[in-house]
C-alpha cells in the first residue's frame, strides 16, 4: 500500500513538473515587438507623474508644474475622477509624439503600506473573459473595467481618433495605475481593434497568471514594464517558482533600472530582460524591499502631494466642462477641435474632499 502511495505521488509530481515546463516554454517562444527607448521612457514617466496632480484645473489645462517638461504642449481631452474608488486618469493628444496618451494614477502614497500588505495575500480570483485558464487579480481588473474610468477613456479615444485619425495610442501608469494601463491596452486591442497600442508602465505589480501573461504578450507585444532597483511592488503579489501556472506571473518585457559601482563611481544600467516576464537575472535577482525606489523613476516623483485621503482641488471656471453622476464621480471633457482652454488658475479655488 505504501509503495502504491509513493508511486501515485511520483506520477503526480512528474505531471506537475511537465505542466510547469510547458507553460514556461510558451512564454519563451513569444516573438516580442517591444523595443525599449530611453527617451520615450523619460517622456511617459512624466505623464505618469502628472496624473497624480490633485489640482484638476491645472491638470485639465496642462499648466501644472509637472506639465512643463518633456510633455509641454500636451492637450487633455478627458479627465476622469472616480471618487468612489479614488481613481484618476486622463486622455489627451501629444502633438510631438503624434499619439494619443492615456495615463492612470497609482495608489496614494499615504496608504501604500496597507496596500502592499494586502498584496502579499491576494489570490488569483477572476477568470479573464475569452481566455481559457487565464486568471487575473480581481481588484486591478475591477478598477479599470467596472468603474467610471473605462467608459470615459474609451469615449475620449473615439473622439480623438475621429479628429486626429488612426494615430498610435500610448498607455502608461505607475503602481496600480500600471496595472490599469495594462488592462486598458489589452482592452483596446481585443475589444476595440486598435491597430497601434503601446504600453509602458512603471513599478507595476503582477496582475495575472502565466496563461494570462502568454495571451497578453501575444496580443499587446509592444509593452514595456520598467522596474527600478529594489522597488517592492513589482515583486507582488508573490511569484512561486515551482508553480508558474498556479501563481501570479509577470508578462514581458521588463526593463530593470539599477546602479553599479562604488563610492562616486556609479553607473546607471538599463537592462532589457528576457521574454519570459520573470527573468531571474533582472529585478527577481534582488530583494524587493524598497518603497523609496517605488516612488521615483528616472528622477521623477510618482506620488500625490496633496495631504489627506484622495483630495482634489478644482477652479469654478472648469465646472462648465464637467459632468457628475449620482455617485459624485465626474468627468472634465473638451472637444479636440477646440483651442486649449486658458484659465486663470490663481482665481477663486475651492477645495472638495473626496472619500476613499
| Uncertain stretches | 1-33, 345-356
**What structural class results from the helix and strand content?**
alpha/beta
Spatial sequence of strands, sheet with the most strands = 10-9-8-7-6-3-2-1-15-14
Shape: globular
Domain Fungal lipase-type: 101-239
Protein name: Fungal lipase-type domain-containing protein
Pfam family, one: Lipase_3
Keywords: Hydrolase, Signal
Describe the secondary structure blueprint for this structure.
Layout lengths: L1 H27 L9 H13 L5 H5 L14 E8 L4 E8 L4 E6 L7 H8 L6 E2 L7 E2 L1 H8 L3 H16 L4 E6 L1 H15 L6 E6 L7 H10 L3 E6 L25 E9 L2 E8 L19 H4 E2 L2 E2 L10 E4 L6 E3 L5 E4 L15 E4 L4
Parallel strand pairs: 3-6, 6-7, 7-8, 8-9
Antiparallel strand pairs: 1-2, 1-15, 2-3, 4-5, 9-10, 11-12, 13-16, 14-15
Briefly, what is this?
Keywords: Hydrolase, Signal. With 356 residues, this protein is an alpha/beta fold.
Keyphrases for this structure?
single chain; 356 residues; alpha/beta; Rossmann fold; 10-stranded mixed sheet; two-stranded antiparallel sheet; 16 strands; 22% strand; globular; Sec_MonoDiacylglyc_Lipase; Fungal lipase-type domain-containing protein; hydrolase activity; AB_hydrolase_fold; Fungal_lipase-type
Structure description:
It is globular, with a radius of gyration of 21 Å. The strands form four sheets. It has a ten-stranded mixed β-sheet with strand order 10-9-8-7-6-3-2-1-15-14, with helices on both faces. The chain has a domain at 21-52 and 92-305: Rossmann fold, CATH 3.40.50. The chain has 356 residues and is of the alpha/beta class. Helix 7 (176-190) links the parallel strand 6 and strand 7. The chain has nine helices and 16 strands. Helix 1 (2-28) packs parallel to helix 8 (210-219) and helix 5 crosses helix 7 (176-190).
Amino acid at each position: 500500500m505504501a509503495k502504491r502511495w509513493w508511486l501515485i505521488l511520483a506520477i503526480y509530481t512528474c505531471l506537475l513538473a511537465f505542466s510547469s515546463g510547458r507553460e514556461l516554454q510558451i512564454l519563451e517562444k513569444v516573438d516580442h515587438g517591444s523595443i525599449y527607448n530611453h527617451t520615450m521612457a523619460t517622456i511617459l514617466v512624466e505623464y505618469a507623474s502628472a496624473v497624480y496632480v490633485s489640482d484638476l484645473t491645472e491638470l485639465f489645462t496642462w499648466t501644472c508644474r509637472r506639465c512643463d517638461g518633456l510633455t509641454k504642449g500636451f492637450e487633455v481631452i478627458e479627465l476622469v475622477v472616480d471618487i468612489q474608488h479614488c481613481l484618476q486618469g486622463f486622455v489627451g493628444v501629444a502633438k510631438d509624439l503624434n499619439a494619443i496618451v492615456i495615463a492612470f494614477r497609482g495608489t496614494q502614497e499615504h496608504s501604500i503600506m496597507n496596500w502592499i500588505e494586502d498584496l502579499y495575500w491576494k489570490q488569483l480570483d477572476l477568470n479573464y473573459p475569452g481566455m481559457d485558464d487565464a486568471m487575473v487579480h480581481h481588484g486591478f481588473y475591477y478598477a479599470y473595467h467596472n468603474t467610471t474610468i473605462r467608459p470615459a477613456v474609451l469615449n475620449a479615444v473615439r473622439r480623438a481618433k475621429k479628429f486626429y485619425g488612426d494615430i498610435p495610442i500610448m498607455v502608461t501608469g505607475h503602481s496600480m495605475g500600471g496595472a490599469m494601463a495594462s488592462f486598458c491596452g489589452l482592452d483596446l486591442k481585443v475589444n476595440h481593434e486598435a491597430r497601434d497600442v503601446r504600453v509602458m508602465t512603471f513599478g507595476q505589480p503582477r496582475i495575472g497568471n502565466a496563461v494570462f501573461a502568454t495571451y497578453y504578450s501575444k496580443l499587446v507585444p509592444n509593452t514595456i514594464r520598467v522596474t527600478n532597483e529594489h522597488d517592492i511592488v513589482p515583486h507582488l503579489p508573490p511569484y512561486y517558482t515551482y508553480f508558474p501556472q498556479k501563481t501570479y506571473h509577470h508578462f514581458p518585457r521588463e526593463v530593470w533600472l539599477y546602479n553599479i559601482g562604488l563610492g562616486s563611481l556609479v553607473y546607471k544600467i538599463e537592462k532589457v530582460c528576457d521574454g519570459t516576464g520573470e527573468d531571474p537575472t533582472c529585478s527577481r535577482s534582488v530583494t524587493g524591499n524598497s518603497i523609496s525606489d517605488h516612488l521615483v523613476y528616472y528622477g521623477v516623483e510618482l506620488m500625490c502631494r496633496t495631504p489627506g485621503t484622495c483630495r482634489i482641488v478644482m477652479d469654478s471656471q472648469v465646472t462648465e466642462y464637467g459632468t457628475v453622476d449620482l455617485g459624485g464621480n465626474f468627468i472634465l471633457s473638451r472637444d479636440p477641435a477646440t483651442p486649449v482652454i486658458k484659465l486663470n488658475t490663481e482665481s477663486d479655488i475651492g477645495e472638495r474632499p473626496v472619500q476613499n
